[in-house]
C-alpha cells in the first residue's frame, strides 16, 4: 500500500509546486497542519553568499550550526571550527547594510541579519531556525540556555513565537497544548520566527558529556515554568533521531517529557522502516524530516527538478512531515516556498 501511495504521489503531484489544502484541515490551517520545505545548513557560503539570501529563498526552515566557544565566550557559527566563524552572516544591523558587509560573524550577527531582513519583509512566512548546538551548551562559562534566550530576545524581541505563546493561559505543558492543536494559524504567524534546538554531533560523540542540549533545555523549560518565568524561553527543544512510537518515553524522565513537541529525524528512516508517523500528526506535533532527497526513489540532494521536489513534498506530507529538508538551496523561491496539506 505504501508503494502504491508513493507512486501516486510521484505521478499525480509532479506538476504541483503549491498544494492547496484539502478537507482534512480547517480553511486556515494551523502551524501543525501544513508541510513545508527547509534548507539544510543554510549558513554555508556555498549555498547562499549572504544569509539574507537564505531568508529570501522562500524556505520555511533554515539551519544554523552553533559552537559555544568557552575561551572567548562567544556563540560561533561554523560547520567544523569551534573557535572561529565560517558562515554567510554579515556584520549588518540595518536593512541598508544587508548583502554588502563582511561575513563570518557570530550568532549575534546572524540574528541581527534576521532582524534587519524582517524590517524589509514584516509579513514574511513563518520561518523555523533550526539550531544545532554542535558541542552543546556550556552553562559554567556563561553560554547556557539562559544566555541563549537572552541573546535571542535582545536581537529579535517580539517576532519570536515562544513556548509561552503556545501555552497561552490554558495549558500547563507544551504537550497538552500541542495535542489540543493550540498552534496559531499559519496566516497569523506571518512575520514570526520559531527556534528549534537539537543536540550536536560533537556533544553526542563526547564520552564525557551525557547531558545534551535536548535534556538541558527541557530541564530549563520545566524549571522556568515552575518559577513562573516561562515567557523567558525562546526556543523549542527537539527529540533528535527517527524512532517508532513516542521516543520521549525512553529518552527523558517524566518531568520533562511534556516539554517536547518538536521531533527531528531522517526521512528515509521514518518512511522505509514503515514507522507509524500518523502519531505525530494526531498529536499535532512538529515533525521535521531531514535528507528528504534520500527517500526511495532517491532524487538529487542539491538540484532536483521542480517536479521531483513537488512529488517529494506530496509524498512526505502524506507521511505526516511538518517540514522536509535537503540541500536544495539552488531551487527558486517559488519552489522552496511550496506547502502541502499534512496527512
From TrEMBL:
Keywords: Hydrolase, Signal. Its EC number is 3.1.4.11. GO terms for molecular function: phosphatidylinositol-4,5-bisphosphate phospholipase C activity. Residues 1-26 form the signal peptide. It comes from the Bacteria. It holds the Pfam family PI-PLC-C1. InterPro entries: PI-PLC-C1 (IPR032075), PLC-like_Pdiesterase_TIM-brl (IPR017946). The keyword Signal applies. CDD domains: PI-PLCc_SaPLC1_like. This is Ca2+-dependent phosphoinositide-specific phospholipase C. It comes from Streptomyces cynarae.
Amino acid at each position: 500500500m505504501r508503494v502504491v501511495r508513493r507512486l501516486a504521489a510521484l505521478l499525480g503531484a509532479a506538476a504541483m509546486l503549491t498544494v492547496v489544502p484539502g478537507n482534512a484541515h480547517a480553511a486556515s490551517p494551523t502551524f501543525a497542519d501544513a508541510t513545508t520545505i527547509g534548507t539544510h545548513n543554510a549558513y554555508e557560503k556555498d549555498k547562499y553568499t549572504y544569509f539574507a539570501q537564505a531568508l529570501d529563498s522562500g524556505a520555511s526552515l533554515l539551519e544554523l550550526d552553533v559552537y559555544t566557544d568557552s575561551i572567548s565566550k562567544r556563540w560561533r557559527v561554523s560547520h567544523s571550527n569551534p573557535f572561529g566563524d565560517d558562515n554567510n552572516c554579515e556584520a549588518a544591523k540595518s536593512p541598508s547594510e544587508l548583502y554588502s558587509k563582511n561575513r563570518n560573524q557570530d550568532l549575534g550577527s546572524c540574528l541581527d541579519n534576521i532582524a534587519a531582513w524582517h524590517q524589509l519583509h514584516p509579513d514574511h512566512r513563518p520561518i523555523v531556525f533550526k539550531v544545532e548546538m554542535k558541542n552543546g551548551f556550556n552553562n559554567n562559562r556563561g553560554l547556557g540556555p539562559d544566555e541563549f534566550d537572552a541573546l535571542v530576545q535582545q536581537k529579535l524581541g517580539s517576532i519570536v513565537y515562544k513556548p509561552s505563546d503556545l501555552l497561552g493561559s490554558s495549558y500547563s505543558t507544551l504537550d497538552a497544548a500541542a495535542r489540543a492543536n493550540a498552534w496559531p494559524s499559519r496566516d497569523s504567524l506571518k512575520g514570526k520566527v520559531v527556534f528549534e534546538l537539537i543536540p550536536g554531533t560533537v556533544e553526542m560523540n563526547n564520552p564525557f558529556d551525557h547531558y545534551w542540549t535536548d535534556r538541558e533545555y527541557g530541564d530549563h523549560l520545566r524549571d522556568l515554568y515552575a518559577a513562573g518565568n516561562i515567557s523567558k524561553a525562546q526556543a523549542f527543544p527537539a527529540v533528535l533521531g527517527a524512532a517508532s512510537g513516542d521516543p520521549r518515553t525512553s529518552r527523558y524522565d517524566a518531568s520533562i517529557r511534556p516539554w517536547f513537541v518538536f521531533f527531528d529525524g531522517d526521512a528515509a528512516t521514518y518512511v522505509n522502516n514503515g514507522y507509524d508517523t500518523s502519531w505525530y500528526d494526531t498529536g499535532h506535533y512538529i515533525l521535521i524530516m531531514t535528507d528528504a532527497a534520500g527517500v526511495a526513489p532517491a532524487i538529487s540532494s542539491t538540484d532536483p527538478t521542480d517536479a521531483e521536489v513537488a512529488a517529494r513534498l506530496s509524498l512526505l506530507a502524506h507521511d505526516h512531515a511538518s517540514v522536509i529538508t535537503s540541500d536544495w538551496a539552488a531551487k527558486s523561491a517559488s519552489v522552496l516556498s511550496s506547502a502541502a496539506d499534512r496527512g
